[in-house]
Amino acid sequence: MRKFASGCVRIVGSGKLFIKSVRPRARRALPEAQGAVKDRRLMTSHTFAAANPLRGTIRVPGDKSISHRALMFSGLAVGQSRITGLLEGEDVLATAAAMRQFGADIIRADDGTWTVHGAGLGSLLEPKSALDMGNSGTSTRLLMGLVASHAITATFIGDASLSGRPMGRVIDPLSQMGAGIEASGGGTLPLMLRGASPAVPITYRLPVASAQVKSAVLLAGLNTPGITRVIEPVPTRDHTERMLTGFGARLEVGEENGEKVIAIHGEADLKPMDVVVPGDPSSAAFFMVAATLVPGSDLTILNVGLNPTRAGLLAVLRQMGADITEVDAREVGGEPVADLRVRHAALTGIDVDPAIAPSMIDEFPVLFVAAALASGTTRTSGLEELRVKESDRLSTMATALSSVGARVEEHEDGLTIHGTGGEPLRGSANARVKTMLDHRIAMSMAVAGLVSRDGVSVDDTSPINTSFPTFMGLLAEAAA
């Protein structure tokens, strides 16, 4: 490793819902330079206040994790794939734009069906311009894995939030496979990656529970001669393994010394397939909590993915006393799915088992809101990963909830929340909660506003478009 004067690091492989809008204002632009990017968003403030009961039936957008992978794997297959139910948020569209630069032909029909003619594994084109990942850490880390075993060079850039997120956890294994990587100080974006040809197969034990790191190594292994193995001490979401098998990759999953081992055979020949994307459980989470907390609610959320590696929030909410029923359990596109009927229920605080964290890591911000309204105390631990998400979600949620009247204690690896016993939060209509460019913070505090006396004013809802562009409309519809 060698540090340059420029700051780069070179690493070489070895009642009724009220929503009040405030006129957008331009966000201060960061300098367009190495290690910094321009944030082109407009800030839009909204105030969320007490709602009518949430009733009726809604359908949340397609699963973000599956949508990313459907575009990537279709883009690597030879032939035509069709994708229905794709999430059309900014993060997924960033993946689509990148795959087009790699040579895939991707077209969206008027009915929302996406058709992908793949570039073919081993035949990716070198991008003619930098790959703008926006706010998407998933796009960045997984696409770094794709590039690592192809004889091309790609530059990755992102917005201000993404440019502060660590990429070292992916840089390490990919450099071991032979990729040459030049990253900004601290191992962040902007970043340039030169793929190895051929790359070197490795056996890599994940130092942290991360489906993104696991997937990056497996995707690099797709075009690497031999067998690449990932050892997973703590199980994480397994969409990559499920979908790669569907596309024809030779992949074996076993266990050694109590740890999961995934082995992928390189120089794969991926076949096209049709993918049906189920509803995103991370998006459904906001409505599961909202309907649980708002008195009189009886809401059905259709077609929610219930992959066991993603269903942790459902188990925790039920442990706290939530009334959530699975209706018409079935399988869609190789993933377990059900409709969820959620009725208002009083919650009781619990000690959340840290072992469940990987299966609900993105849902903790809205769980913290549920805990703030529960009876008694909820304690969470083992959540260090939340400090390196789109924001430091432990610190940001502790500050946000405290500002609206919740009693919160922040620890290094979690939060302790003393609930109100169902009494509304005070709210903060006259003081805007800072979301720190984080879509899940914005939506979680929107839910908090529904169960507050004075409403909750969120400083910026524009990041919601990265994962859930229809959130505001669905919330208004459910509370109409």
Keywords:
UDP-n-acetylglucosamine1-carboxyvinyl-transferase, Chain, alpha+beta, 4-stranded mixed β-sheet, 480 residues, 27% helix, 27 strands, disordered N terminus
Report on the structure:
It is built from twelve helices and 27 strands. The chain has two domains: 44-61 and 278-478, UDP-n-acetylglucosamine1-carboxyvinyl-transferase, Chain (Alpha-beta prism), CATH 3.65.10; 64-276, Enolpyruvate transferase domain (UDP-n-acetylglucosamine1-carboxyvinyl-transferase, Chain). It has helices at 64-76, 90-101, 137-148, 168-176, 211-222, 239-246, 281-293, 312-320, 364-373, 393-403, 439-450, 471-478, and strands spanning 2-3, 8-12, 19-21, 25-26, 42-43, 46-48, 55-59, 80-84, 105-108, 114-117, 131-132, 153-157, 180-184, 188-194, 203-205, 227-232, 251-256, 259-265, 274-276, 298-305, 323-332, 335-343, 377-379, 407-411, 414-418, 428-433, 456-458. By secondary structure, the chain is an alpha+beta fold. The protein is globular. Helix 11 links the parallel strand 26 and strand 27. Helix content is 27%, strand content 27%. Residues 1-40 have low confidence and may be disordered. The strands form seven sheets. Strands 1-2-13-14-12-11 form a six-stranded mixed beta sheet. Strands 3-6-27-26 form a four-stranded mixed beta sheet. Strands 7-20-22-21 form a four-stranded mixed beta sheet.
Strand and helix map with partners:
Blueprint: E1 2-3, E2 8-12, E3 19-21, E4 25-26, E5 42-43, E6 46-48, E7 55-59, H1 64-76, E8 80-84, H2 90-101, E9 105-108, E10 114-117, E11 131-132, H3 137-148, E12 153-157, H4 168-176, E13 180-184, E14 188-194, E15 203-205, H5 211-222, E16 227-232, H6 239-246, E17 251-256, E18 259-265, E19 274-276, H7 281-293, E20 298-305, H8 312-320, E21 323-332, E22 335-343, H9 364-373, E23 377-379, H10 393-403, E24 407-411, E25 414-418, E26 428-433, H11 439-450, E27 456-458, H12 471-478
Parallel strand pairs: 7-20, 8-19, 11-12, 15-16, 26-27
Antiparallel strand pairs: 1-2, 2-13, 3-6, 4-5, 6-27, 8-10, 9-10, 12-14, 13-14, 16-18, 17-18, 20-22, 21-22, 23-25, 24-25
